Write the structure tokens for this entry.
Amino acid sequence: MGDTMDEMERTILEYVAKEYLEEDDDREVTVDTPLISGGIVDSFSMVSLKCFLEKKYGIQIPDADASADAFDTVSSICALVRRFRPN
Amino acid sequence: MAFSQAARDWYHREIAGIRDAGLYKEERFIHSLQDADIEVEFPAGASPARVINLCANNYLGLSSHPEVIAAAHEGLDHRGYGLSSVRFICGTQDIHRELERKLTAFLGTEDTLLFPSCMDANAGVFEAVLNEQDVMIADRLVHASIVDGMRLCKAMQDTYKHADMGHLEEKLVEHQDKRFRLIITDGVFSMDGDLAPLDQIVALAEKHNAMVFVDDSHASGYIGKTGRGTHEHFGVLGKIDIITTTLGKALGGASGGCVSGRAELVEMCRQRARPYLFSNTVAPVIVSGALKVLELISASTERRDKLEENTRYWRNLLTDAGFDIKKGSSSIVPVMLYNAKLAQDVARDLFVEGIYVIGFFFPVVAKGQARIRTQLSAAHDKHHLDRAIAAFIKVGKKYDILGKTKAEVIATYGN
């Protein structure tokens, strides 16, 4: 997986690890790790991630699209960002 | 028929799903006044059992205090049962404003506005004082009512790791482009019982030009040397811009809440907070009881001092017995069990032993952090706590958790 990870996946993975894991948390987070259903990110703290994505990629994600499903893995988050990012 | 069979079936499936997930909540009928000893009918239909209550927010033991009850009776006789109005039409009596003035003096703020509950205060306050030019930066473990209130507000939302001052500072720096920054935290966190470091939070707020909001519902009345709250404990009286709190816990336990703080912010709530504008005034009987509560706790710190001693005693009993508890100084003492089923089994067995506690697990607390939350009261005497620890030890031995580390408990029961 590491070989195929693109820049956006790497950036978001780094953010998730820094933003949501405690220093003593040794859970491995990959692009397919369930973040919300796995209990790493909850629906409330998810706002930080949405805020980061909007600033970093210059997009606005409507609340209706910022669903727990769409934010559940780094892969699905990347797909969401690509939908809203201008070409 | 609008409520079709298909709709009924859907709701049945949804409720079954709640049951299957182990999240179904059942009320237990109490046949007595709220106190240290109560009579509980559980399961429904069983003969009421007399048990020691270790799960009430009755921190000062004032919920059934005879002087509070007498004052409430007097309020009922002289100001009536209801006012049939919101505050700004014909729902404000002299005693409402008197209670607001007394809460202002007690909390050390500039002004106060009553709400039907603290849930309503939190639902209304953010939208009333902030707009899309601002940002709200909240501790991730704040109460659900704050989360809901933030969602109703147009200001940007952000969060910081629980009580992590470095992370909070990063966020304050990041959001310097906003007009107003509001740091949002509980004073005492309801599930962990720890205190927000308000001295450090206020210092960061001053350094980075931010306002501070504290929900002190689990602190008002007993935290701090004279019980004024978490801000008194940390020596920052007068430096919190917005405090919300409840009359439904230590301060008599009935209902009602308030927004207290900077005069201009309270005035904005009076003009714009929707739960204040569009729900009924607090009933006179509640206001009268709350006035008596403030009189009692302003005259003497005896009850909060007894609670402090009870808390110290109970924390020591649990620690000496080998239970894994969350460290802290508040009267919320979580006994950590990590596994959701274990927490429910231990709570059920304790009830059989005459101790009323509740197991909490995901999603109320984080995954793998299941616990029994015990709460102390000034209504408890030493004999209550001695009987309670004997039951805890008996049940603890049954499940072989005494003296076990977190890793050992998880190795046996999973998380």
